[in-house]
């Protein structure tokens, strides 16, 4: 038991946890993005998809996925905070300037961009999943009169009417820049942590990391952009 505790607390294992949970969250983002892009195909397509997600396996699958996501988030955030604290405690003051120059802005601000991202995710859940903020759009799409407890909302109306408000769209667009910046450094760093040193794979990852972060940031941004520009309407 003590041996397991020692391994769990080691820097190497914490780094590994951060990398694996981070890559699994990237997989979720790719799946979530492909679902969101259905908004361009129309109301029926995205609503059917949302309905399918909620009812798959008698409504059990979504809870399994949510539990998995929550665990990955918790592991990712706690390991990131633990490692940042240890790094700070171990860093001798005289090396500070040298290290700062050698590292990039993205790498030095990972903890802060990550914490901003966490606050975005909480805001986003409060918006689309709990209907606790901008609740008028959630209520429109999911009327309490329908008597539903975990109701299946008209996701299309909820997304489009929300993003027709410039302030909501701008908040999402700024957050997507943050997502892109965080992932740009994170993907390359995770692959390095997992010890991928193959001479053929390393150059591919150097392109795939920034490429994926651009696809994810631009893909998610395309939804509020298209709505605010009037290409997608109620
Ligand atoms: C324009 C961008 C986005 C749109 C339009 C969007 C849309 C949605 C919608 C409609 C839901 C609710 C689905 C449902 O309950 O039926 C949802 C859930 C969620 N979104 Fe997003 N999303 C966007 C970006 C993101 C990003 C960038 C992240 C993560 C960094 C994210 C993380 C989540 C999570 C964790 C859930 C909860 C999944 C669940 O518990 O069912 N989303 N999103």
Protein model, in words:
It is a single chain. By secondary structure, this protein is an all-alpha fold. The chain has a single domain (2-228), classed as 3 helical TM bundles of succinate and fumarate reductases. 77% of the residues lie in helices and 0% in strands. The protein has helices at 2-9, 11-36, 43-55, 61-90, 96-102, 105-108, 110-129, 135-141, 155-163, 166-193, 201-228. Helix 2 crosses helix 10 (166-193), helix 2 (11-36) crosses helix 11 (201-228) and helix 10 runs antiparallel to helix 11. The longest helix has 30 residues, at 61-90. The model has no long low-confidence stretch (mean pLDDT 88). The chain binds protoporphyrin IX containing FE. Protoporphyrin IX containing FE binds next to helix 2, helix 4, helix 7, helix 9 and helix 10. The site of protoporphyrin IX containing FE (HEM) has 19 residues, from helix 2, helix 4, helix 7, helix 9 and helix 10.
CATH architecture label: Up-down Bundle
* Beta-strand percentage range: under 5%
The helix content, as a percent range, equals over 70%
List all distinct small molecules, including ions and cofactors, that are bound in this structure: protoporphyrin IX containing FE
Structural class: mainly alpha
CATH topology: 3 helical TM bundles of succinate and fumarate reductases
Characterize the quaternary organization of these chains.
Answer: single chain
Backbone shape: globular
- The level 1 CATH classification is Mainly Alpha
Largest sheet: none
């Amino acid at each position: 038991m003590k041996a397991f505790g020692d391994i769990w607390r080691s820097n190497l294992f914490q780094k590994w946890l951060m990398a694996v949970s981070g890559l699994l969250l990237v997989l979720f983002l790719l799946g979530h993005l492909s679902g969101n892009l259905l908004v361009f195909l129309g109301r029926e397509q995205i609503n059917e998809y949302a309905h399918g997600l909620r009812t798959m396996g008698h409504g059990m699958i979504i809870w399994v996925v949510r539990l998995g996501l929550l665990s990955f988030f918790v592991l990712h955030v706690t390991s990131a905070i633990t490692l940042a604290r240890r790094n700070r405690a171990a860093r001798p003051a005289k090396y500070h300037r040298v290290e700062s120059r050698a590292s990039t802005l993205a790498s030095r601000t990972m903890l802060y961009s990550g914490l901003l991202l966490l606050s975005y995710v909480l805001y986003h859940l409060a918006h689309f999943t709990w209907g606790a903020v901008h609740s008028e759009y959630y209520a429109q799409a999911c009327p309490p009169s329908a008597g539903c407890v975990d109701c299946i909302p008209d996701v299309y109306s909820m997304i489009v009417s929300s993003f027709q408000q410039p302030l909501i769209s701008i908040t999402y667009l700024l957050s997507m820049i943050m997502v892109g910046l965080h992932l740009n450094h994170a993907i390359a760093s995770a692959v390095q942590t997992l010890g991928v040193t193959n001479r053929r794979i390393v150059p591919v990852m150097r392109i795939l990391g920034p490429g994926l972060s651009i696809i994810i940031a631009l893909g998610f941004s395309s939804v509020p952009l298209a709505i605010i520009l009037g290409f997608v309407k109620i």
